[in-house]
Amino acid sequence: MEALFEKTNSRMEKCLDSLDRDFQVIRAGRANPKVLNNIVVDYYGTPTPLNQMAAISVPEPRLLTIQPWDASTIKEIEKAINTSDIGINPQNDGKIIRLTFPQLTEEHRKALVKDVSKRGEEAKIAVRNVRRDSMDDIKKMKKNNDITEDDLSYGEEKLQKITDKYIKQIDEMIKNKEDEVLSI
């Protein structure tokens, strides 16, 4: 049964990692290179992640600079940024692309907070689905007489404790991201 608990922990940890990746691409009014993590550029016919093609830096709190290692790819990088959903227009001077993050309006901040909450709820649902699958596995073990009634109740309690731990971590992640979005 310990192997089942390890598997459950591992699957719930993946839910947290997924939520963390989702939160990284939500921009909070400050320049964050991670908003570019999902941008893929057509590099001589090969889809290549932007962060593997250029040096990305944050010279000012609301400015990102992208300096491609191959200057001939600047147009493709600019095109990939424009077609992405980050909502920032790149400025290109021939050598460097600049992304200026606008100050967020109160309305946009509230919309981002709703998005953060929605993604957090989806992560909680994923964690609960993992718990349900593990509970089903424990019940099958009981049905097959692999474990006793006491083992069944112990397993259900332990799964609930594991679930509560991950739900609490998700709540903390949501609160931290909401605070980051709402801070000016």
Describe the overall structure:
It is a single chain. By secondary structure, the chain is α+β, with helices and mostly antiparallel strands. A four-stranded antiparallel β-sheet has the order 3-4-6-5, covered by helices on one side. A two-stranded antiparallel sheet has the order 1-2. Helix 3 packs antiparallel against helix 4. The protein is elongated.
Biggest sheet architecture: 4 strands, antiparallel
Output the strand order for the largest sheet: 3-4-6-5
Number of strands: 6
Helix content: 55-70%
Q: Beta-strand percentage? A: 5-15%
Uncertain regions spanning at least 5 consecutive residues: none
Shape: elongated
Radius of gyration: 22 Å
Could you say which structural class the secondary elements and strand pairing correspond to? alpha+beta
Supply the number of helical segments: 4
